[in-house]
Amino acid sequence: MKIKTRNFDLKHTLECGQLFRQEKKAGFYYLIAGGKIIKLRQEGDDLLFNGASEKFIKNYFALDENYEKIISELKKDKFVASAIKKYPGLRICRQNSWECLISFILSSASNIPKIKRNIDEISRCFGRKIKSGDYVSYSFPEKSEIKNLCTIRNCGCGFRSPFVYETAKKADEKWLSSLRKLSYEAAKKELMKLKGVGEKVADCVLLFSLGFGEAFPVDVWVKRVMEELYFNGKKTSEKKIREFAQKKWGKNAGYAQEFLYHYRRNRQVL
Length: 270
Fold this sequence. Notes:
Structural class: alpha+beta
Distance between the termini: 38 Å
CATH class of the largest domain: Mainly Alpha
CATH topology of the largest domain: Endonuclease III, domain 1
CATH superfamily of the largest domain: Hypothetical protein, domain 2
Largest sheet: 5 strands, antiparallel
Number of helices: 14
Mean pLDDT: 96
Order of helices and strands: EHEEEEHHHHHEEHHHHHHHH
Radius of gyration: 18 Å
Strand order of the largest sheet: 1-5-4-3-2
CATH architecture of the largest domain: Orthogonal Bundle
Number of domains: 3
Helix content: 40-55%
Shape: globular
């Protein structure tokens, strides 16, 4: 199947750090989402895909949002404008909130290769086998399928294992979806009641799956780039950085974060 896109870049979107279950192979991206393997390739403005419906693709990649307005507002900042110029068409995806929650719990004090390994192992142990041609993977397990703490530990999750186990007993997709009706502050407070969910993990879930565009996750890369560009190189608390970003960019703070994060992580300096 094929759809025409505007202001969208598949590579920048899939490789900017918001997703953990994608792989490039023989010119195609294989994305595990919605319990399926989705095969993707971009040719100019055409997005070629199979394994999912057009409706799913448009929603997942936020192709229906007013992207031009968001970018127009963000370009008023010269640093963000530089990052946008380097990575045009980067979109914030609308992930499944349950998978997003567990994935970012596993991200605590870790790195992307290890996070991917942990998620793949969790999926292999608790999910179901799925295929797309010769490509084989496993679906991300439902809450009810993650039942054994010892198995979680055997997936290499370390100190995060009990966090995953306890979260699987307390949170589900319905509860997570209900957070959309709350204010940003209230939704974040509810998420942080879960073990293993601190400020950064909560903001990632709010931004990448629950539609809170003002969420501004602060990790080591974001802290570094914000201190360099907006605080004269001075050590600054994560709380102060978040407050600054939300005041400066409002509902677009999450997009500013993702552009600055991706630029700093790949280019080192702006």
